[in-house]
Amino acid sequence: VDDLFDNQTVPEYNTRAVEKLTGIPADTFRAWERRYGLPAPARTEGNHRLYSQRDIAIVMSLKQLTEDGVSISRAVSIVQRRLTVEPSTADEPAAAPLNGSGFAQLQHRLIAAFTQFDASEANHVMEEALALYEPETVALDVIQPALIELGNAWERGDVCAAIGNFGTAFSMRKLSALFNASQPEMGSPTILMSCVAGEMHEVGLMITALVLSRSGYRVIYLGANMPGAELAEAVRRVQPDAVVLSAPTEIVTDALRESVASLHEDTGSDRAPVIGYGGAVFELSPKLRDTVDAVYLGRDARGARDILRQMLRSRAEGLVLTP
Ligand code: B12
What we know:
By secondary structure, the chain is an alpha/beta fold.
């Protein structure tokens, strides 16, 4: 239904059939046609409307979007935009919102907005993405790849540092707002999260916090550059079920090992928390993982969520955990 390019344009369904197939009264989709020009059925010789499969997909998309709380005029412009972007190949439609291509388009538009320092267009892209997808999907499949690409573009010298910082700052504001709105203090078990001492790259940690909080955990977020001794003190006070550390750059691997060591020393609890970590450097140099006495949580928040779910379940059942 959402793949507007996969649907045939041959006019073959009458109004009654469309009502039956979509569950929407004819008055409604005829009003959409009058006001917004969508759908755009053909006419028989006797001037009766004849709809194609694509028209039906359009009606279904409008229905879905309005049911999700998007206004009808906004829903129409979203669908129009999808229809005006040409598919890259016949087999792989570029405008389908529920597959990789839909994400690629949103990423591309977000990067374009960043390179123009255009926060209002970036906000527009975010609104559109959030009308279609869950916040964690927007974080993982739109913001994260866009920032990785922006970082690579900066390394290649294609964009200046200011654009990179603008995109990072904009994204951190969005992600923080989504994280706050997900009521991180509500769920359970409790996960304490921070970057290790000296680590200022905070985006990966924030995305992981959002995803974990949206999965129902209570997340206590300490942010960037957390000295090991202070972290251990916080763990003694909070008694979390898990501690998740971010150490994406090479320069902080020692700091990660130190933090992990002080957490192993004394957490003030008879049931030690799961200690997990992540960061790009452990993907680039997998051997480094052997030097850290904690659980590697994978490439990104998606893997972290799955591994932690498993580990916290085992911990709740009282099974012994080793990294
Ligand atoms: C933006 C940026 C900054 C910003 C960060 C702002 C912020 N609020 O986060 C600022 C300007 C502060 C900055 C500073 C520095 N930066 Co910088 N920065 C970048 C840049 C351009 C993008 C990073 C980014 O946000 N990427 C997008 C996010 C999504 O990626 P990510 O953070 O890596 O997260 C991914 C993984 O690491 C992982 N992950 C991260 N945390 C966690 C946690 C868990 C639990 C899990 C599961 C996964 C996970 O998930 C994400 C998806 O895979 C990169 C270049 C690049 N190509 O990456 C350089 C880069 C990371 N920076 C680098 C350096 C050297 C520095 C500085 C030392 C530069 C300097 N001389 O001042 C300083 C010091 C920073 C410090 N002490 O930590 C190097 C690191 C080199 C290395 N070998 O490790 C890079 C790669 C650039 C380079 N090639 O030189 N930087």
